[in-house]
Specification:
five-stranded mixed beta sheet; two-stranded antiparallel ribbon; rod-shaped
Length: 296
Amino acid sequence: MMKKLSFELKNKLIEVGGNCFWFRQNYQSFFESCGVKRDHYLRYKDENKYSIMRNILTDLEEKGDIETILSLLSNFYILKKIPDDKVPDPAKSKRLLQELKDLCGEDLLEQRIKQQKLEEKRKTKLALINNKLSYEQTLANIKNEFYELLNLDDPHKRGFALEPLINKLFSLNEVEYHKSFRTVTEQIDGYFKFDKFDYLVETKWEKAPIDKGPLDEFQNEVVRRIESTRGLFISMSGFNPNHISLFEGANPRIILMDGEDLTLILEGRFQLIDALNLKIMHAVKKGKIFYRLRDL
């Protein structure tokens, strides 16, 4: 990786800067497009164009700002003509620009591309770290809200408060989730699209495990929709194991999640997407609509 301009290349860059620009405003704009700060350029604005380029290059070398130096070189390299046609000697300017390009050669572009890839990789890694931290913090906030609900004695209030919490969890995992809605005859607690299927959501937080009645009612709500519709039933108190098998078979349309499953997701033991995929896989392969995450 280039650490400093060669004497020949630096002098040629100074010559090009002094000869290829006539209007100082264009000269300043060129520097800014290469990453040179406006106040850096204005520091030398009263000097001639040769001195401006020499001083800026010297400053950049002393700071070790190779990225901006490469940007200056590559932006000259890709010019198809001189920036200002009003220069006193266009032919000389064109010759000097070509001589600079010849000095740079293809190695400059390869070096510039390598530098850009390293910078993009660094930014991508930093973004991933920041996204991970943001995800973990948001998940922790949702988890804290969930634990606060445990102190509510009123099951109706708990169930009502659970719906927006589920919404936040799905949104955090970038699954578009629609809040509860009502039809003429039904109250649907939520809806989301996942892996090309539409899912209706039922949420319950009662003292006793869910038995056949609510499961039957929810399955009927799902079956009344088009065939690509499935259902996710979330019951904090779990399900009566004697009734689950009544809804399993060759074509299950609903999958089940209990409070323990949800807690494992909120604790970060499973990501929501992975949990859904596991449950769907067992429903498809084995016809089992209630796969417990703890069994993994």
